[in-house]
Amino acid sequence: MASNHHEFLILGANFAGVGTAHYLLRHTIPALLKLDATRTYHVTLVSPSTHFFWKIGAPRTLASPDLIPLSKVLLPVVDGFQEYSTDQYTIETGAAVGFNPEQRTVTVELPSKDTKTLHYTTLIIATGTSSPSAVWTLNGSHENTINAMKELHTTLPSAKTILIAGGGPAGTETAGEIGSLYPKAQTTILSGTSRLLSRLSKATSHDVQVRLNKLGVEVIHDLRVTSVKKLDGGATELTFDNGTTRTVDVYIDSTGGKPNTSFLPKEWLNEQGQVLNDDKSLRLTVPGSEGIYAIGDVGSYSHGGIMDVKAGVAPLCSSIAIDVAKTIDPSKAGAFKQKNFKWIPDTQFVPTGPKGGVGQLFGWRVPSLMVWAFKSRNFMVEKLPGAMKGEDYIKA
Fold first, then answer.
1. What is the C-alpha separation between 292 and 301, in angstroms, rounded?
2. Under a CB-based contact definition with an 8 Å cutoff, are residues 333 and 322 in contact?
3. CA distances in angstroms from 235 to 100, 124, 220, 247, 248, listed in the order given
4. Residues 22, 261, 92, CA angle at the centre, nearest 5°?
5. Which residue, among 253, 167, 211, 174, has the nearest Cα to 356 in the 3D structure?
6. Per-residue DSSP letters for 337-375?
7. Relative to the CA of 86, which of 55, 92, 156, 175 has its CA 20 to 30 Å away?
8. Average pLDDT, the chain
């Protein structure tokens, strides 16, 4: 590879990867070309899924395709890059399975199961997480998500007993959607801790439980599922950590995902499996990781959620611009200003069905009407085309 060519390799093509690609193509690369017009730049996106998944809408989509159809939450990634020349970027379908930082290569497993070696100058890890159920994340091909959704579309309407494990936003929202749509079913949610939405205030947790109870949803605390057994006929037998069991018609696991970092050295990861990176610049902080960055749920800087992605793209790309400028001429690094990631604490909007929900903004509780206007109406699915086109990053 010629020394005047710079390859940006982005692993992951959902919120974090796609947003970063747009920022690089739209802002960072044009600015770098002003420093040295003889260099060439190219962006490669790698993802096991050809489609972008608006996972924000998953709780309502899984409840019924009549509410939010799959076509509204899954669209081809390539559709978001029509404004660029095809020689500026490449989209590869595959999953990272190997990594050599000394040679600056990533091994990718293709859908055919063959492997391909990709070289990089700058590497951005945006591989996200894989959840116990593909209704929450792209666990490989988007077809896995479609199949998981369709299974629930088949089983939920006739289910008499439904159990949801996980009391975070996804599980709580799902309980609200199912409780609203299927009031005759016996729906139960396990918070897994002492309360729902444990990252928010106790008052908000109490409020959301009251709202779910009014929908007929049973809320159980301090109980976790330890084993799951699918029975003949479609029911599921659950064993809990107190030794008891329960058989339900539908079981939905929303206990959270694990970072997609199995291809990375273990010493580069924290106890949760996230990549160790600086919580302001998003550069990796481990020896031998120069020119490598992480963004989204896969990075240790992240508290989880799409807001940490959106707030991280500009700081990440400012770090990249500074570091690449140094390779052109160390004196030119000052052409770019370092932007720092700033976490937005105690902020979540959690619908409990189509009529409203609970929420906090910087720790302040917000009325149900605001939750309805912001999210509960349609889970913001109208924003999917814009997210794919990087409309959050029109300005640098």
1. 14
2. yes
3. 45, 42, 21, 7, 6
4. 45
5. 211
6. PPP------S-EEEESSTT-EEEEETTEE--HHHHIIII
7. 55
8. 97
DSSP annotation of 24: I
pLDDT tens sequence across 76-112: 999 999 999 999 999 999 999 999 999 999 999 999 9
| 34: exposed, middle or buried (Cβ count in 10 Å: 0-12, 13-18, 19+) | exposed
Give the DSSP letter of residue 310: H
Q: For residue 252, report the phi and psi dihedrals to the nearest 5 degrees.
A: -120, 115
Do 201 and 217 touch, CB atoms closer than 8 A? no
Whole-number Å distance between alpha carbons of 119 and 46: 12
**Residues 276, 301: Cα–Cα separation, whole Å:** 8
Could you tell me if 302 and 274 are in contact, meaning their C-beta atoms sit under 8 angstroms apart? yes
Place of tokens 């945006």: 126
Please give the Cα distance from 280 to 327 (Å, whole number). Answer: 22
From CA 55, how far away is CA 129, in angstroms rounded?
12
CA–CA dist 70, 84 (Å, integer): 27
Q: How far apart are CA 148 and CA 89, in angstroms?
A: 31
* Torsion sign across C-alpha atoms 178, 179, 180, 182: positive
Which strand ranges, in their side-by-side order, compose the sheet holding 225-230? 225-230, 236-240, 245-248
CB neighbour list of residue 82: distance below 8 Å, 6 or more residues apart = none
Integer Cα distance of 220 and 213 in angstroms: 11
Which amino acid is it at 10?
Answer: I
DSSP line for 157-180: GG-SEEEEE--SHHHHHHHHHHHH
Q: Closest Cα to residue 353, out of 377, 369, 381?
A: 377
DSSP string, 61-92: HHH-TTTS-GGGTEEEGGGGGTTS-TTSEEEE
Alpha-carbon distance 44 to 267, whole Å? 26
* Torsions phi, psi for 316 (to 5 deg): -60, -50
Give me the pLDDT at residue 3, please.
72
CA 28/CA 11 separation, integer angstroms: 18
